[in-house]
Amino acid sequence: MREMIVNELTQATQELSRGLAHILPRIIVLVIIGFVGWIVAYIIRVSLRSVLRLVKFDKLSENAGASQLLAKAGLPSATEVLSQFTFGVAWLGFLLLGVSVLGVFGLQEQIANFFLFLPRLFVALFILFVGLLGASFFSRAALLAAVNANLPSPRLLGTAIRSIIIVFVLSMVFEELGVAGETMLVAFGIAFGALMLGLALAFGIGGQGLAQRFLEKRLVRGKDDDGKRDELSPL
Amino acid sequence: MKKANTTDDSILTDELLRQLINVGEVDILIGLPTHNNAKTIGPIVATIQTGLLALFPRERAVIINADGGSQDGTPELVLNAAIDDGRGRSKVSALRTLPVISTQYASSPARGTALRSILAAAELLRARACMVVSPESTQIKTEWLTTLVRPVYAEEFDLVLPTYSRHRFDGMLLTNLLYPMTRALYGWRIREPYALDFAFSGRLGSQFLAQNPWQDETARSGSETYFTLNAIAGQARICQSFLGNREHVERGSSDLIPALRQTVGALFSSLGPHADLWNASTGSQSVPTTGPEVEFTLEPLRVNRKRLREMFSAGVAELESVFQAILSPATLDELRRIAQLEEALFRYPAELWVRTIYEFAAAYHKSVISRDHILQALAPLFRGRALTFLVENRSGSADEVENNVEALCLAFERGKPYLLELWNGRE
After folding, report:
1. Do residue B171 and residue A235 have CB atoms under 8 angstroms apart?
2. Same domain? A124 vs A213
3. CA B21 to chain centre
4. Do the Cβ atoms of B161 and B240 come closer than 8 Å?
5. DSSP for B332-393?
6. A96 shares a domain with A9
7. By the 8 A CB rule, do B143 and B221 touch?
8. Is pLDDT at B388 greater than 80 in this prediction?
9. What is the mean pLDDT of chain B?
10. Each residue's pLDDT tens digit, B38-94
């Protein structure tokens, strides 16, 4: 009996030792990969921050309206957020690479999925940034054109254009991320359709006179004399 | 024909090249950029032909019409005028033929491309003197050829710019911005930096072509202003010639934005490449001028001041987010204050206008937002300044109007250190 207990204990100790001998080098590899990954991620962060400062990314982000969103959320500048985010993703990538070395059952597949998801995440971020930039540019263009044409409610027009573009961009971003793609598509379709229907009804029923005057001005020559009477030649 | 190294003939079509080679070298080239000018172009071509035959009978001359895809038969009218080439009208029998060439540079008008075609043709033909005439200059006289071409042809000037007799409220963008700012920055009192009727030497034309400014959108849309500013920066010999009355042209409010692009856009855009020049220049000096430097006519003119005031106030209120990116908080606060004033009390002071323009110029240089948006944002503010100019000079004599313009010019000169501070300051 005693011998059996000793044998079992010895066997368990040996198995534990074997397990430790099996896992310990892998943990050391994980730590080394994690450390190297941190250094690489840090270098990426510093380099990216320098490049973004060089190309005046903060100014671009300000023009896109992204900086204002970040400020409202109490976050640092766009350059800092993007470089920190890239650092985090890069280091996490290295850590997961290290974890995969441990050979934990079922984790390998999830890690592979994470690496497959990364390009889509960056594409989605790119779409979001360019979309915000476009929304800001086109809403400002509409605002300026409306002000200079003396149209009513120019700010409303600018905001409407910005909102439509942002909704459109968000639906693209979610589709790219594969998050509630169909829901977003349907929601966008309903919102856009409702907006267009609303505008058509408002313009058709509420603004018959305005529509008539607008079309007359556009299509009938010689009726657009208002501006000519009011202004002198600037040159 | 031997070509100069800088010849920019990429713009010239094969057919045009063939016609130009048939013409050979010339002494004088007259350029006519047109687009749907059938109503006015006939008499203008006739006047030019008569003038050339009468005033330059020994010189080899050519008229080049650069057309931007007219649909009203403008090029045909120019060429038909060539058949009846003015000999019947002129008492002097010409010693040479006077070729007229019409070319379509594009299917839509582009002033920069038209000027580029004329410059390229002038260089290819080795013209000594070139004159560009606006197709809207119905007041053209044969004497223009003497007043514009002679200084280049006989007196070695590089650029001859016009001065006109204008209505006191005509060309307010020139009197309130382009002239004072060009003068303050570049140091030359050039009354019409945006010239549509002007003459230049073949040398200056070749220099401009060699710089190949056509890649820049601003240079394409504001080519005439850009040409003048490049001549100043290149220290060309510039003079002015009085051309008489400039016909008042009624324009709609939609014309202001293209006008801003053609003039202010080109001026702002020129500041970057020529920063060393205008940073160093102080004060201003007059350029040699034949005839009066300026003349104002005073007949009454109906202008809707209420609309100008409303568009200014609406612009300041609606474009606040845009102005925050362009203007300093102090300037924006001041604009908000005057936008609240009643029409009778409304005044956009010269000092505030100067500060506004310099802040716009710095914002344009730093591209704080799209450069075209910066120019568009200036339109409502210009309307406010135009209203003040109208009110200040409503009952003034020609001398008083000129004194007010001079005071504004001095305000621009005094304010120049502020622009330097903005320009050279940290972003």
Report:
1. yes
2. yes
3. 31
4. yes
5. HHHHHHHHTS-TTT----HHHHHHHHHHHHHHHHHTSS-HHHHHHHHHHHHHHHHHHHHHHT
6. yes
7. no
8. yes
9. 89
10. 999 999 999 999 999 889 988 999 999 999 989 999 999 998 876 555 555 554 455
Which amino acid, residue B388? T
In a shared domain, residues A158 and A84: no
In a domain, A10, yes or no: yes
Domain range summary for chain B, segments of one domain joined by +: 9-297, 305-424
Mind telling me how many Å the CA of B162 is from chain A's nearest CA? 13
Question: Bridge-partner residues for B242, per DSSP?
Answer: B163
Tell the CATH topology of B9-297.
Spore Coat Polysaccharide Biosynthesis Protein SpsA; Chain A (3.90.550)
Alpha-carbon gap: A58 to the closest alpha carbon of chain B (Å): 11
Cα gap A162→A172, rounded to integer Å: 15
Res B330: pLDDT: 96
Report how far residue B408's alpha carbon sits from residue B338's, in angstroms, rounded to the nearest whole number: 19
State the helix-helix crossing angle for B416-424 and B398-414, rounded to 10 degrees.
Answer: 30
Residues A198, A154: one domain? yes
Alpha carbon separation from B88 to A180, A191, B56, B83 (Å, rounded) = 83, 73, 16, 11
Question: Any chain A CB within 8 A of the CB of B252?
Answer: yes
Residue corresponding to tokens 């003034």:
B396
- Domain hosting A30: range is 1-104
Q: What's residue A235's pLDDT?
A: 78
Residue B216 CB burial class (10 angstroms; 0-12, 13-18, ≥19) = middle
Both tokens of B48, joined, read 């030019």
Q: What are phi and psi of B290, to 5 degrees?
A: -95, 120
Give φ, ψ of A221 to 5 degrees. -70, 150
Round to whole Å and give the CA distance between A157 and B26: 56
Contact residues, chain A, for B248 at CB < 8 Å: 233
Instruction: Please name the residue of chain A whose CA is at the shortest distance from the CA of residue B305.
Output: A230
Q: What is the dihedral of CA B318, B321, B323, B329, to 10 degrees?
A: 120
A88 and A145 housed in the same domain: no
User: Do A95 and A38 share a domain, yes or no?
Assistant: yes
Please answer yes or no on whether A228 and B250 come within 8 Å at the CB atom. yes
**Closest partner CB to B319 (pick from A59, A143, A224):** A143
Question: Letter for the amino acid at B225?
Answer: T
A1 and A24, same structural domain? yes
| CA distance to partner chain B, nearest, from residue A73 (Å) | 20
- The residue written with tokens 């809403």 in the block is A139
Give me the residue label for tokens 């071509």: B45
H or E element that contains B16: helix B14-23
Give the containing element (helix H, strand E) for B65.
strand B61-67
First to last CA, chain A: 113
Whether B259 sits inside 8 A of A234 (CB atoms) is yes
Instruction: Please give the structure tokens belonging to residue A70.
Output: 């970040």
Residue A99 lies in a domain: yes
In a domain, A50, yes or no: yes
Report the domain count for chain A.
Answer: 2
A166: in domain: yes
